[in-house]
Specification:
UspA, about 20% strand, alpha/beta, UspA domain protein, globular, Rossmann-like_a/b/a_fold, single chain, about 140 residues, Rossmann fold, Universal_stress_UspA
Amino acid sequence: MISRVLVAMDGSDLSERALRYALDAHRDAEVSVIHVVGGASPMMGAAAGIALSEAGDDGIREAAEPVFERAREIAAECDATVDTIVEVGKPARGILDHAEEFDVVVLGTHSGSLADRLLVGNVAKAVFQRSPVPVTVVR
């Protein structure tokens, strides 16, 4: 029986679809939403990581709050509640760092532009390949 579900959300419509799926498919489970606030990357440079680290926990939480607010709205529509987890860094690593605490990971994957497939598709692929628990990918 699935009692704990981790849903990765990035603010996209597809991640919202993943949350709706998880809430519908696992009605009796405790659902937690994770949002990974990006750290330094080749595209954003080290400045993003520095700015986030200087902002501290409050700044990181503030950056994630719009995603969490939307997650709570969706949960309320489904007569449910969600817990929230925020991480800083690479999305796949942040999700995988928590996956072991759950029975299943649910995430959306993009199938749009090449940029979407390279950035977001790689996250889904990495989580799918390395997760210690089953992964459901929602399109």
